[in-house]
Every structure is written in structure tokens, then in C-alpha cells.
Amino acid sequence: MQAPSEQNYIQQLSIDCVIFGYQEKQLKVLVPKMNFRGDFWALPAGFIYQDENIDQAARRILEGRTGIKDIYLEQFRVFGDAQRTNLQVLERLVQLNQEKLRDHWFNQKEFDWITRRFVSIGYYALVDINKVVPQKSEMDASIEWCPIKELPPMIMDHNEMVANALETLRLNLDQKLIAFNLLPQTFTMKELQELYEAIFDKPFARNNFQKKMLELNVLERLEKKFTGAANKAPYLYRFQPQG
Amino acid sequence: MQAPSEQNYIQQLSIDCVIFGYQEKQLKVLVPKMNFRGDFWALPAGFIYQDENIDQAARRILEGRTGIKDIYLEQFRVFGDAQRTNLQVLERLVQLNQEKLRDHWFNQKEFDWITRRFVSIGYYALVDINKVVPQKSEMDASIEWCPIKELPPMIMDHNEMVANALETLRLNLDQKLIAFNLLPQTFTMKELQELYEAIFDKPFARNNFQKKMLELNVLERLEKKFTGAANKAPYLYRFQPQG
Prior knowledge:
The structure is a homodimer.
Chain A: E1 9-23, E2 26-34, E3 45-49, H1 54-66, E4 72-79, H2 87-96, H3 98-104, H4 108-114, E5 119-126, E6 140-147, H5 158-176, E7 186-188, H6 189-200, H7 206-215, E8 219-224, E9 235-239
């Protein structure tokens, strides 16, 4: 993290990112663990430079943690409780890690800056998990893809943020045709259905699902997938919006 | 408008409100016109007190302009271009209204505060237009319900904000069952259909529409509407979510 300062960044405004990936039939979220004593899990986050659009800021933060540039991202909500502040987290962090913090982080002015009330813009991102090489920031001990059902307790309202991002993802999924951002370029109908089942956490009927997806008119059917058993091989599809 | 100051408000963060009403088969937006020389139309807006949740701030701003407290409101997007500032608007306003501004508004410090880059949280609100008595602020010459198809050119990105709010309203309309906030407590199926047609700006087939609405399982059928012609009178309905 760069030392925050009034001159560089908009004050009291931050961005938090819920980065969704899909793997082993599970929806996952990219979660860094901070490199301090005590278990501090926090969503990838950052601030907005004075000369930077908010979407650019979100892309910069996302690229920093995923190593990729072209990411589907969308605002989902602003979190703006009057009591929303890092103060308790930072105080506990200082308490547990005095020496480390004294050596590396936060002079008093920076501590004051970062413990004020913050309004945070929540973005969610959808990535092809195979393309991402998760990047630790200098404050992280590790960064992991965590199944959404097994998320650790994170700092502040970050668990609520994930729940909210998931809710928005579900609402948007059909209307905005965005699920494909979570898949490799080609996939079978079964794989697509498993993705939807992971996101909605419920089973879909195979025939209905296939019918609905084909009616969207955005799937291009390719050759059959090579499985060794040619006559039962499923078709591969590719997302190809019309017009 | 109260004189803005660093101590009271979060800096560089504002709220803009798109207040939707429905009247004479038209979707309308509540638009104040500022009391200065030159045609300055602007969405109802305000800032966020340091000790105030952002939703509370939006409710305060909405109540100030509509006179009512219980309003359906929802964030729809944050507008955060790096170049987003009141500077051009304020400069033109000063140029055209020197005397008036000198007498009443903005010392230099306030001018500097309000012409910095602002990130703005867009909220849209749905109201029963019959319950609203539009309130001018001290900076307004008038405040009017304007059909969404006849909006004047507003300052900054406010026309884009309305377009965006409308898009979100359309996306949310079925899934969140919110259209009823625009209607009086009871309405006929035809009136409900006309509302949907106004929002989506296209006709719906009567039978399909009625079937779809009844399947939502949120309409309670009441007595027939008194029209004088008893045998052709339509039923009245009331929004009544189950469970």
C-alpha cells in the first residue's frame, strides 16, 4: 500500500473488490490474508487518485491482484454507514503487531487518515480463474481462492459485501449475459449448467436449462468435445452475442 | 443549501436523486430549476454529513424536495469521472449572476470547496405522485414534474443520470416488485399495464401481461371499480406480497 495522503487520493472514499472465479464446480472469491500477527482477512481494496476515474481505480486494484487487465467488473453497491471505519481493525492490528508496524507502517498522520470514516464503493469482478495468477501485495502473507461457502470472517463489513455482490450477480445473470466471463472460451452445456448451479446454489432441470440457454441466442455450437467415446461426446459451445 | 464546509460534510462526495413519479400515463421526474439568470436545471442533490449514513442523507434530501418520509429509494450507480466537477457550471453561473451571487452565495472558500472534483452517488426514488407536494429549495425558482421524454438539458451529467436510473428501474422492475410504489394503493389491471408501458416505452399484450402479473402472486383482488356500468367494471387490485 502506498502511504495515503490528502494530496494524492480522494479522502474518506475507498474501493473494495469481490473477485469471483469458478473452479471444481464451486464459486470462489479471491481473498488475501494480511501479513501480521492475528488473522486479518480483507478483500482487495484501494483508494482513488485525484486524477483517476473510479472505474480506472477499480481496474488498477484488480490488475494488481490478478495480473490481468481485461476484466469484467461492475459496481454493485456503496457501503456508507456513519460508523464505518478501520479504527477497530487498525487498533487491534497495532496491539498485536507493535514492532512490525513501527518498523514498516503508518506514521501518526497516516494512521489518522486511514482510520477516519470511509465510504466504500463495492465492485465485483468475474474472471476466468485459469488466467489469474493471484498477486500478494506487500501487506499480504498469502492470497487464495476461497470457496464462497467457506469464507473466513473478514474485517469490517467485507463478508456482507461478498453476500451483496453475490445477490447482484444472481439478479444480473440472465439479463446481462455475464456468466460466460467465469468460464474458459469453450464449454459444454453441462459445464454451463454446473456454473449456474454453483452461483444459485441449487439444481436446475437439464432440459429446461438447455432450452433457456439456447433461446438466449448467444451460444455458438462448435465441434464435439473429444472424450474418447465419440457417440456420447457432448458439444462444445462458445459465447457469441448476436448483432 | 447550507454553506459547505470540511468539518460538516464528507469532501468531494455528493448524492444526486432521480425522483420518479407517474401521472397521465407518463413517467415523470422531479426537476428543480435554479433561481438565477440562465437556465440551470439540476437534479435534487446534497452532501453527506460526517455523522450520517449515506442512505439517511439520501432520505433527508428526498424529504426536503417531496415533503414525504417513507420513500422507496435505491442506489443505482456511482458517477466518478476524474473530470467530474461543478466548475464550468459555477463559473457560468457567476458570470451571468454576479450581483445575486455576491449578495447571497459562496464566499471564495465555499466556491473552492464546491468546485473540486465530486464523486456522486446516484439514488432513484419511486413515489406516489399524488402524495408529493414538491418543495423548492432556497436556490430554486421552480420545481416541476417533467415527463421523462421532455427533460430539459440539465447541468453536468444529470441527463445521463436519469437515463441510467431508468435503465436500472427497468432491470429491477419484475424481480424486485417495486412498480407499485408509483401507484395509488388500489389500481386496475389496465392501470398497472399502462404504468409498465410508460416505463418500458412499449406496448404489452393484455392477456400475457395480466397472466404474468397474477403469477407473481402479489396482487390481492378487491371489489370492482365503480364506473356506472356495473357489468363491464374492472376489478381493483392491491399490492400485497405473500409471506
